[in-house]
Amino acid sequence: MWTSDIQQGSARLEREGMPLEFSGCPHGRPFACHRMDSIGARIELVDAGRQAGFLSRWQPDGGPMPAIDEAPGG
Fold first, then answer.
1. DSSP readout, 6-47?
2. Does 65 reside within a domain?
């Protein structure tokens, strides 16, 4: 999932009961992985600022994907 703010998004998921499994942020990589144990899934948050590079490599003709707005009230 694309997010406007990795730190805020990751903290929100932890507050909502989805523990952090790994963060690439301390290693200069703007993503974080969380567990959603209730359904056996994992959620990967990626900084929306990286989307253009992702699309140019993996889906050159694709349009922008929505991002979660982590701003208060977003």
1. HHHHHHHHHHTT--EEEESGGGT--EEEEEETTTTEEEEEEE
2. no
Q: Would you call 36 exposed, middle or buried from its count of C-beta atoms within 10 A (0-12, 13-18, 19+)?
A: middle
Place of tokens 């992985």: 33
The number of folded domains in the chain is 1
Each residue's pLDDT tens digit, 11-49: 999 999 999 999 999 999 999 999 999 999 999 999 999
> For residue 68, is it within any domain?
no
Separation CA 12–CA 15 (nearest Å): 5
For residue 47, what are the domain limits? 2-59
